[in-house]
Amino acid sequence: MPRLVCSVAVAAQAALVPVAAVAVPAVPTAPATPTAPTAPATPAVPTASAVPTASAAPGPPPSGQRSVAALLTELKTLYRQAGRATETYNALEERLRKQRAEVDRLDTALARARRALERSRAEAGRLARQQYQNSTTDLSSYLRLLMARNPQQALDEGHVIGQLARERAEAVDRLTADEKRAAALARDARRAYATQLALARRQQQARDDIRRRLHDVERLLASLSAEQLAALAAFEKSGIATAQRTFLASGVLSGLRPPSRRGEQAVRYAVRQLGKPYQWGAEGPQAYDCSGLTSQAWSRAGVSIPRTSQEQWARLRRVPLSELRPGDLVVYFPEATHVALYLGDGMVVHAPRPGARVKVSPIAANPVLGAVRPDPGGAPLPRYVPPRLPPGALDGPDAGLYAAEAPETSAR
User: Nearest to residue 329, comparing CAs of 310, 319, 342, 347?
Assistant: First the structure.
């Protein structure tokens, strides 16, 4: 299976920012409003539903006849389609994880209910045998009272007999309740297991979708010459540099703010992951996809956040870009299909795309949707020293629309 197919595409769908298409983002007029301004825009890219993949496109011209801009647009489209498929996969993985836990809980409860039912049946059987034996040898309690030499003793025996009758009635009630509970739990367990199987099938379909789309990327890359790949690399580098200069010159970022204590812990964890490979669906410690890196960084800081970039964008507190501090999450693309951890000074750490590694990039390497803060109540540190970046932290593609060389192949 090609290596691209074995890596995640969430960060990979990150679009390039061509030089001519950079727009200056507006600074928010109300800094307290928890919404983020729009970052530099990239040329409009058709959605997955509107643009056929490389394999389905009706007779595209050979790669040698297409401009660098056209190749970038096609790669951008393919990677973003793969990114959306990866987010679908990650969301299904989260649901499947919770569903498995629910199935396990119901199985445990059902096992307990069945043990209780067996005990109730055994008790009911014992009392039934006892009642049968008493009914064959004993006189009625009224006759025993009349014939007894000691009426008080007879009354005491009658009390015991009445208590046994109540115990038999209670045992029957427990048996009935246990049978109903066991039957209800068995139905719930069957439904939960059926849901688990359906989620697993959908997850498999999402995985196959990712692989198909990344295979389209691989086919396109394999059709490019070394000169075309070099031109793509140069175009990306120039476009991102220009986008970053424009972004910073707009004044949307207003200086370095210290992180919270937990934000600092998340930053330092993410920096320690530099150089580890991107792999779709991975949450570490050997490899990550984009949201796997951010969720694990904050988890190690003691804050549980959603697993996917889309859920992180939807459920975490939004903050204006003018109020960014290290540890905040920068979310990219209108579909929120990529996410990075803000380092400060206009830089982020993220897992860019299939075939790449965790690295530091300019914040404007991809079109910014906005920012969220996992710990909105966290007080800023009185003093903050940013972590020292290791050599090569900025090496490699930032937007990740292509490989610098023909993709390798490996089994997964």
Answer: 342
